[in-house]
Amino acid sequence: MSESASDRIRSGESWKEFCAAIEAAGSIILAEGAPDDVQTRAEGFRYLSRLARVALEAFVEHADPLAPVLFRPVHETVKMGADNPDNHYLWAAISGEQGYRIRGRRGSVHYLGFGTYAGFYGGGPRRATGYLEGSDLVCDPDGSFELQIACQRPEGAVNWLPAEPDSAQLIVRQTFLDHERERAAELLIERLGGDGRPSPLTAERLDAGLGQAGRLVLGAASLFSSWAEQFRSHVNELPEFDPETSLAAGGDPHIVYYHSYWALEPGQALQIDFTPPECQHWNFQLDNHWMESLDYRYFRVWLNKHTAEAGPEGRVRIVVAHEDPGCPNWIQTAGHRFGTMCLRWVRPAEKVQPRCRVLPLEELRP
Question: Which fold has domain 235-363?
Answer without folding.
Answer: Jelly Rolls (2.60.120)
